[in-house]
Each structure stands twice: as C-alpha cells, then as structure tokens.
Recover the amino acids of this structure.
C-alpha cells in the first residue's frame, strides 16, 4: 500500500501529528462513537481522520492541538454520516448499546447476593437509559454537549472547532442541556409512577 | 442582579466563562436565591451523569494497533530519549523568529522552564504506559512506606476519595537529575499526577498549558509540588485547595 511506504519517511511535523493522534485516540474514538452510533463507523472515521491529519500536518497553524485533531475527526464523522445517509444504510443508534447494556446486566446478575444484583441492575438500567437519551439528541446538540462536558473545551475553542459563532455554541449547549434534563426528568417521574 | 439576568449567567458561571467581576455579582445573587442555586445544582448533576453514567468508548485495540503500525511506532515501547516537547519548542522558536516581535510574548509562554517539560513528559509517558503507577494502592498506609524505602524524604500521602479525587497509587520519576515522588489520583476519567518537588529542584515551575494539559504549582500541605492533569480550571482549583489543606 503506497500509504504504508510513505510512512517510512515521516517529516518531523507528521511525527508530531502522529503522536498527537495517538495520545488522543480514545477521545477521538469516543467522539466518533457518539456521533456515528456504532463501532465500525467510528473506527473507520478515526482512521480517515488520522490519514487526513498526517497529510495535512504542515498546515497546522498553532493553537490547541487537541482541538485541531478532534475537528478533523468530527469532519470525517460528518462525511461518513452523509455517506451512510446516501446509502440508506440505517443503523439503529442504540442497537449496539442495548446489547451491551444487557450483557452488563447479565454479567452482574450472575454473581453476588440479591441486594447487590438489584443495585447493579438499577445502575445498569440507569446508564443504558441515559446513554439512549444522549444518543437521541440531535447531532448538532450532541456534539456541542460532548465537546463541553466530556472534552472540556471552552466556548471559544468549540466555536473554532465547529466553525460557528460563539453565540450559536452557547444556545446549542443550553438547548442540549435543557433537552437532556427534560428527558431525564420525564424518565424519573415515570419510575416513581411505577413504584420502581 | 435580578433572577432573569442571573439565570442567563448561571451556565456561563458553571462553565467558567464569566469574568471575575460578573461572577462576584452572580455569587451575591446566588447567596440569596434558592431557585438560581437549584439551576446551578441541576447543571452539575447533568455533568456528573454525563461523565459517570454515559459510556466512555475507548479506542478498540485493532484501531490503535493499525494507527501505531502505520506510524511505524514500535519505538513507543521504549521511551524516546529526545522528548517530544523539545521538538514543539523548536517549532515555536522558529515561529516566533518568523513572526517577529509580536510573537515573543507567545514564545515566552510556550518556553516553560525545563522542569515543566520533564513533568509534562512524565505525565504523558505514564498515560501511554500499561500502568501509570509503580505501586497500586488506594491506601495511603501502603503508598507512604513504599516511598520511604526509595526517597530520603517521603511525601505526605492522603486520599481524597470522599471529595471525588481517589488515590490510585504512586511512582518515581525524574525531574532533571532529581528523583521525585509522584502521587497519582483519579477524578472521573482524569488521571492527575502530583509531583512532590525536592528543594534541590529550585523554584517551582509556573503554571503552563500544553496540548490541553495543564501544569499548576500547588502546595502539598506546605511542601512545593506541581500538578499535571487535563481537568478544567474549576476542578484544578478545587483539587489544589484540597492538596494545600492536606495534613
């Protein structure tokens, strides 16, 4: 593969970008996984981003390097999402999540006493439900929320990363939080009603 | 400040985006207004849920292996002798030179004293290693004697699990040619290194930022120390205060 051959003569800036990508590979993958909703697409998008970042290494103009890298990851995710829409390949957002949640519940239920199992079940259910609510947010709200709460970027950094005015970042963040709080509030009321 | 104005500002305050004067005004309002306090608490609960309950997806091993292979990075297993930040520093020097006088201030911010480089390097090396600690323990009574066997002056070791900063363990590293004790804490998904600086290291490094990681000079119960982490400013300040009060 020509790419692999070219890698043997990395420029210093490509080496730096490669290190950067590796150091923030988990963050990149987590962002991709939340934006795309499944493992295969997230892996592909992060790999696309890595290739693109090393090629564009010389265009990096300073500033927050992690934000620069995650912006590339995010753009590759959106490209993949657009491609998926064109192919009409409908992958249910929470398909994998649901299965994982059940596995976790089964694993936790297999040992320990009844109280432990009950508590573990509650935690697993709460987490699965929460993940579903986050995954259910419209993508433009979801990405702002993740960049702020998980990646801890400032408003300015998010605005630069997403190429949006800072006011739009603030209103999307506020909307995302309100939507999620409302969803969680509704879920809690539902539990109370059913005496859980 | 009335409630309507305050409510607009609460998220900005929570995200650390308010200037000091406005933050003080808002705090005065929060002292008197339970409803606005509730709004702040709700934001905190949501953040906590996102950080603790939403799954954090780690990169699959195959993806990491693929990226490493393409970078030809088998060298990563043995730490390189030329630390990465020196390359970054060389680049920023070139940049400052090209950009002329206006960039000198930027250059000075980037060119932290050598000890800061060692501490950032140590933190990154630990993050890349299989385990960030040499002695794993959540019990300070294990960590302290472990250091006592290796350093003339064992550091103060305290667990802050109840405050959300759990002791993970300790390790030894070098700052310049000095052996330093490193206390490792975990806060949510963040790993925090606290470097206990021996007097021979000289002046404590000043606060600096690099690639989203922050170095802050702190006091560990009166002894000079430095903390490296990727937490946000509010959490760093909170942990700094806990360390200062360690007994």
């Amino acid at each position: 593969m020509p790419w692999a051959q070219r890698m043997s003569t990395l420029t210093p800036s490509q080496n730096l970008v490669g290190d950067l990508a590796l150091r923030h590979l988990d963050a990149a993958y987590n962002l991709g996984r939340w934006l795309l909703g499944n493992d295969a697409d997230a892996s592909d998008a992060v790999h696309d981003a890595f290739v693109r970042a090393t090629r564009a290494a010389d265009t990096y103009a300073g500033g927050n390097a992690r934000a620069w890298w995650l912006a590339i990851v995010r753009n590759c995710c959106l490209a993949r999402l657009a491609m998926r829409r064109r192919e009409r390949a409908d992958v249910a957002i929470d398909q994998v999540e649901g299965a994982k949640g059940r596995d976790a519940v089964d694993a936790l239920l297999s040992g320990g006493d009844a109280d432990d199992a009950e508590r573990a079940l509650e935690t697993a259910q709460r987490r699965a439900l929460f993940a579903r609510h986050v995954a259910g947010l419209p993508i433009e709200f979801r990405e702002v929320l993740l960049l702020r709460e998980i990646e801890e970027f400032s408003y300015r950094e998010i605005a630069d990363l997403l190429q949006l005015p800072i006011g739009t970042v603030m209103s999307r963040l506020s909307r995302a939080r309100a939507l999620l709080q409302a969803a969680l509030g509704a879920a809690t009321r539902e539990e109370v009603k059913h005496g859980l | 400040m009335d409630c309507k104005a305050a409510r607009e500002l609460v998220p900005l305050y929570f995200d650390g985006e308010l200037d000091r004067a406005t933050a003080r005004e808002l705090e005065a309002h929060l002292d008197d207004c339970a409803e606005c306090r509730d709004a702040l608490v709700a934001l905190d609960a949501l953040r906590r849920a996102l950080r603790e309950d939403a799954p954090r997806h780690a990169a699959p091993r195959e993806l990491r292996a693929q990226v490493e292979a393409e970078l030809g990075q088998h060298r990563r297993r043995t730490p390189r002798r030329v630390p990465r930040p020196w390359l970054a520093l060389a680049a920023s020097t070139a940049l400052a030179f090209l950009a002329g006088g206006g960039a000198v201030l930027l250059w000075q911010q980037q060119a932290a004293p050598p000890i800061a480089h060692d501490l950032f390097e140590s933190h990154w090396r630990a993050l890349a290693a299989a385990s960030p600690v040499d002695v794993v323990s959540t019990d300070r009574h294990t960590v302290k004697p472990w250091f006592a066997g290796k350093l003339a002056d064992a550091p103060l070791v305290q667990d802050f699990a109840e405050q959300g900063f759990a002791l993970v363990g300790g390790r030894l590293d070098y700052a310049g040619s000095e052996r330093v004790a490193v206390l490792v804490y975990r806060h949510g998904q963040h790993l925090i290194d606290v470097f206990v600086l021996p007097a021979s290291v000289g002046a404590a490094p000043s606060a600096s930022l690099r690639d989203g990681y922050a170095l802050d000079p702190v006091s560990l119960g009166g002894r000079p120390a430095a903390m490296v982490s990727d937490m946000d400013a509010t959490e760093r300040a909170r942990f700094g205060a806990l360390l200062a009060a360690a007994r």
